[in-house]
Amino acid sequence: MRQMILLFSHSLSDAQKADARENYGIDIFIPLREDMQKLWSSIPAQSEDISNHIQPIKAFVEEVSREGDVVLIQGDFGATYALVNYCQSLELVTLYATTKRNVVEKSIDGKMVKTSVFEHVRFREYI
To answer: What percent of the chain has pLDDT over 70?
Structure first.
């Protein structure tokens, strides 16, 4: 059974789950625990060094992963870079999601309102 570990601030859409199952053989999705999710979603912008902040997330990944598992990593650029490198050192497959933006315009009360709707296209491997 192949797992996808979610280092990601959102919930996966049905399209993303289907893509993961079909193209990566994912059987199990492992979200961050609530305390880890709070860490991942609030990387402190004022900190020069975030190593200590992301250490618990690294420990979580090491605890739940097996070689060849997939990790979806998206978030703060520096934290993402560090976690991609760390996960690759553990022989994990590191991915990010790509989307297509569809702009929808509606007239509401005489005003044009533009809404961006993001649609999942595919996962792409970090290289």
So the answer is: 100
Per-residue confidence (pLDDT) for residue 50, from 0 to 100: 97
pTM above 0.90, yes or no: no
User: Distance (Å, rounded) from C-alpha 74 to C-alpha 96?
Assistant: 6
Give the domain range for residue 27: 2-125
Question: Tokens 């569809």 appear where?
Answer: 102
Q: Which of 59, 31, 55 is nearest to 43 (CA)?
A: 55
Nearest to 6 by CA among 34, 29, 38, 39: 29
* Structure-block tokens of residue 87: 């996960």
Q: What is the CATH number of the domain that holds 115?
A: 3.40.50
Into how many domains does the chain fold? Answer: 1
3-class secondary-structure state, position 41? helix
Structure token digits, residue 112: 């044009």
As given in the structure block, the two tokens for residue 29 are: 């999705």
Angstrom CA distances, 127 to 73, 88, 124, stand at 13, 10, 9
Structure tokens at 33: 């625990």
